[in-house]
């Protein structure tokens, strides 16, 4: 009695077709998800390969039906082509039909299996090449840009928190990822300056300025590096044209004032300090202290006293200011400052 295998064959054929369809659906999902998140692409490709494998594994196996009365095998017929193989994979018997003895079907051969595997691999490769490799090629610059921005933002956080070693690594990675990223170059130069690698810092600032000569932050930090090396004339030579083009650049204004101050050119220094103080609204203990000292050396004691007092309002722990006010203010007016100077010295 002949065993009916129609139900199992029908189920296998349906499963195989479903797996293959799901595999290609996930390949298409990988293509569509590329612009959203690369992790979606990798997940979809992995799932697609899994379903394609299941489709291949669960495809119905061809059965051999022979007339038991005949001992002579049937002719195997012409060699199965790739089209025949594909058709065989997706062929599903009619749900209402029952399998009966069919003409002899040639069994699957190694050549058939190789063709099927080649078809699956070729399909995966084509989808991968078109949607994955192609996307990488055309969006490579955007990817690098995204990476460099992430590195730069991370470096900025480390720099602001005083973690200069980590800032150094991330700034460097940012401009290595994008050799036109001048903000990353300047940030890297600033960290080099903190690490006392002044020559390397100036090279980085010059590199940024070669890309954008008008990038003010690069000019300012280059001047600051020269100032820290006591190259005050070089700093002034950079800052003067910078301030001519940017008269409201108050950080540069204070720096050029400091450069003149270190050269004992107090009148020039006061010009820039007063500009920052009066027009820029810059208020700090250091600025008020320096301005008070310049007025003090010029004999303008009333101006000096007011600025010394203002300096103490920002920082009440400076012994030298208390001492000098105790000297400038007579009698009872100076007693408070003289006593505070004594207390701070004892502490």
Describe the structure.
The chain is built from 16 helices and no strands. The protein is mostly helical and 347 residues long. Among the domains are: 104 residues; 90 residues, Serine Threonine Protein Phosphatase 5, Tetratricopeptide repeat. Helix 1 runs parallel beside helix 4, helix 5 packs parallel to helix 7 and helix 15 runs antiparallel to helix 16. It is elongated and about 115 Å long.
Mean pLDDT across all residues, rounded?
Answer: 79
How many beta strands in the DSSP annotation? 0
How many H/I helices? Answer: 16
Q: What is the CA-CA span between the terminal residues?
A: 111 Å
Helical amount: over 70%
Q: Which value, in Å, is the CA radius of gyration?
A: 41 Å
The structural class is mainly alpha
Stretches where pLDDT is under 50 for at least 5 consecutive residues are: 64-83, 97-105, 134-144
The fraction of residues assigned to DSSP E strands is under 5%
* Global outline: elongated
List the helices and strands in order: HHHHHHHHHHHHHHHH
Largest sheet descriptor: none
